[in-house]
């Protein structure tokens, strides 16, 4: 069974991420094949638009498949590490600048690498089963696959909040913060696909109102608390604010890699002034540094491999992560940066 399936239906190039048993997690081979197919379809007059979905009813794509990467991180100098991120980020860049409509049908979980092959498309359709998150700080990484670009462009401080905490969003919130462009119930996705194949996108006529977004009601407190000029300042503002929501948010932040939190904070702040290519170039630098450090491999071990959910971060607290430590993650790579 192919992990990714391509077909042409009417005027639509159809892509199905086809690993339902693994929540359609994206492998390096899948990323490479998708990139190659998009390149071919760009010059194919039969294909007027691209439609991407995930097999099964649990996930669009739950992220990148990091098991091979975990093993590679245990072998210093393994070329897989550079290839994995170079090819994934190059794919994200192609999707962002694709010359034809690119429609992602997000039904179920979409996280990490799945966000990278959906949120940069021209249309992003979510169903009532959609569940979005950028959980990278919880595995000792940073919110990548374009998070440097799209998180700081969300309303107010919502992007920083999502990037640091990994908070999960349902359909209404996904529309509110710009992750999605349309809400269509799962039972009508077949109509969407038929309409796209027939040449009439029809998304606006099928789109429905998913209801009030909870994020909108929390916008003021998020904007106040996440306006700090450092992670420590954000934590101080949350402590001063008080209340059930802030207590829960503080508890969540306390589980994340301190290094990831500080790097992600700076990444998202800097991303506001970068273009997309610059954002992906920065992410490539960060990816190579995280793969050479302790926390990312330890986070994958704790969450994906052993599943004990008890990562031992190094350093274990924010005060031990210096500005010089953070600066080192952003320094140019000796082997050359990613050029797009």
- Give me the strand/helix succession: EEHEEHHEEHEEHHHEHHHHHHHHH
The helix/strand class is: alpha/beta
Strand content: 5-15%
> Overall mean pLDDT score?
96
Helical stretch tally: 16
- Strand order, largest beta sheet: 1-2-3-5-7-9
Shape: globular
Gap between N and C termini: 33 Å
Name the poorly predicted regions: none
Oligomeric status: single chain
Describe the structure.
With 340 residues, the chain is an alpha/beta fold. Helix content is 46%, strand content 11%. It contains 16 helices and 9 strands. The chain has helices at 28-42, 67-73, 79-96, 113-116, 147-150, 158-165, 171-176, 189-197, 203-206, 214-225, 231-241, 244-253, 258-271, 276-292, 295-305, 323-330, and strands at 4-9, 12-17, 49-54, 59-61, 102-106, 109-111, 123-126, 131-133, 182-183. Strand 1 and strand 2 form a beta hairpin. Helix 1 (28-42) runs parallel beside helix 3, helix 6 (158-165) packs antiparallel against helix 13 (258-271) and helix 11 packs antiparallel against helix 12 (244-253). The two termini are 33 Å apart.
Short overview:
This protein has helices at residues 28-42, 67-73, 79-96, 113-116, 147-150, 158-165, 171-176, 189-197, 203-206, 214-225, 231-241, 244-253, 258-271, 276-292, 295-305, 323-330, and strands spanning 4-9, 12-17, 49-54, 59-61, 102-106, 109-111, 123-126, 131-133, 182-183. With 340 residues, it is an alpha/beta fold.
Supply database-style keywords.
340 residues; alpha/beta; six-stranded mixed beta sheet; three-stranded parallel beta sheet; 16 helices; 9 strands
